[in-house]
Specification:
Low-confidence stretches: 142-148
Structural class: alpha+beta
CATH architecture: Alpha-Beta Complex
CATH superfamily: Molybdopterin biosynthesis MoaE subunit
CATH class: Alpha Beta
Helix content: 25-40%
Largest sheet: 7 strands, mixed
Distance between the termini: 30 Å
Order of helices and strands: EHEEHEEHEE
Number of helices: 3
Mean pLDDT: 90
CATH topology: Aldehyde Oxidoreductase, domain 3
Shape: globular
Number of strands: 7
Length: about 150
């Protein structure tokens, strides 16, 4: 399950919904990861652009990997502006065994940072500035990896 939201994520609501959706699925482990915008370099927040077709394809490949391990993965991400100390990213793995969930959430979050087609901008002094120095070009993306 992949969900995109305008603005900051409502972490308690999303995590509760996911928990309730899987409460009777007989998973022994539920491992969430919550990404929060932290204060650095004088930013007021972050802003995100998403190329949804590639994100959906990328996420589908991870759902397939999870299914092969008897697990499921869920993800929520923000579009647009997210201010300091708000959440822009949540991922969770549900698995019969904790080791599968612990390893899978780590692999998923690391690949998300390296491969997801999401562009990050700093919000400073009311301006949106591309965070090129903290961005990773998407492998094989051509011009999409070079967005200015």
């Amino acid at each position: 399950m992949l969900s995109l939201h305008n603005g900051a994520l409502n972490v308690p609501k999303i995590l509760q919904e996911w928990y309730e959706e899987e409460a009777v699925s007989n998973y022994g482990a539920y491992i969430p990861f919550v990404g929060t915008v932290r204060s650095e370099d004088g930013i007021e927040g972050l802003s995100f652009d998403i190329y949804e077709p590639i994100l959906e394809s990328w996420f589908a490949s991870w759902q397939k990997k999870a299914k092969e391990k008897g697990a499921i993965i869920k993800m929520a991400h923000s579009r647009g502006d997210v201010m300091l100390h708000e959440s822009s990213y949540i991922a969770a793995v549900f698995s019969p065994k904790r080791r599968v969930a612990l390893e899978f959430i780590d692999e998923f979050v690391e690949d998300f940072k390296a491969s997801a087609p999401i562009w990050k901008y700093d919000l400073k002094n009311g301006k949106r500035i591309y965070a090129k120095e903290r961005s990773t070009a998407i492998k094989g993306s051509g011009i999409l990896g070079e967005k200015q």
